[in-house]
Amino acid sequence: MPAAEFGRAYDAGLSVRGCMTRFGYTRVMVESALREAGTVMRPPGRAHAAPMSAEYAAQIRAVYDSGLSVQQTAEKIGCGLRAVTKGVTLAGGTMRPPGPVPRR
Questions:
Q1: Is the pTM of this model over 0.85?
Q2: pLDDT tens, position by position, 44-63
Q3: Among the residues of 24-95, which ranges form H helices?
């Protein structure tokens, strides 16, 4: 996988852990690829995390709006449950009530 792809995902707001989940690589491999891409690393932890980009929020909303649950969206995107909620609302969407999807 090209290092630049890791860099774009990370710069769009994905964490190192999110990159690991999304691309299926170890922490060492992700961090190495980010260094190779010349990515400026954020300090670890939530307190210092960069704000979510509008592009990343729109991507999360599109996946969630396709009908997936919050958990399924998080797994597909490679982020946490809170990031799904934040992304959907930041992109102007609304969260569905919890529970199974009603049958039509």
A1: no
A2: 766 556 688 999 999 999 99
A3: 27-36, 54-65, 70-77, 81-90
